Fold this protein.
Amino acid sequence: MRTSTKSPHPNLYSWFIEELDPTGRKIGPDYKPWGSNLHFNAKNLRVYRGLTLEDGNAKASDGIIGALIPSEGRRHTAVVYSFFGTNRPVDTITLRIHKSEDGREVCALWGSVAYVSEWDFEEVRTPDTVEVQLFLAPSRFEDLVKFIEDGRAKGGITIRHVEGVYAQWSPSIRTDTVKLLGNIEDQNLQIEPGADHIPTVLGNVGYFEYRFHKGGRSEEVVTNNDTPGNQEPLAPVAAVPDLGPSLAALQVKVARLSIPLWIAAIAAVVSVFIHR
């Protein structure tokens, strides 16, 4: 792989990452940083309890773990994720939720391309790995633990503005293929000589929302819409297609109206005729 500033659409993106075959021929599209929504359904959520002893001090290592499945919507298919330099779809995406030690609530995306290591004179292959990691304030974490510890909770998460995520440019703000950059050296990404950009690797997530429920979608719901820094609340995962921040926010406002818009519109027309 290599970066290039020879963009065919410089007004849309000034640089991109391209993949090459062994002969140096380009394969696939231009991949630019992708900042729009990525939706996942969560399953097999469970709580684990742990304790670590170090230098005579005990420290709890509780957490929540589950599996994430790229979700489909009415206007988009499930996204296929793979690492640059491979054509293997990532089979497993893990969700890990931890208690924040400093009270801050943050989200990160971590990943590593498959590798082989030696353990006890045997070669062990670790597959392509991707994890979404949430760190929640202690009170919110404990509330979430109580909510899902009976094993009935399900739901999903939405993330966007994610470092290390690349896709082909699309005017629809949707994509069905995402390429991941976990490490520049390990994935042998060549930076164009003299380039003034360094591609980001998997790391910070600018916005995240989780929404878990039991029973129907409107029963016993927990979410993190009030997380500081999340300025663009979304509707429930899979209820709002990936239409961009402004339109998604507008849909949320419309959904919260006490009177449907079509009823309000009819009432306005009737009012006009009555006052004539």
Notes: Helices lie at 138-148, 245-255, 261-275. Residues 37-163+200-243 form one domain. Residues 231-276 have pLDDT under 50 and may be disordered. The radius of gyration is 22 Å.
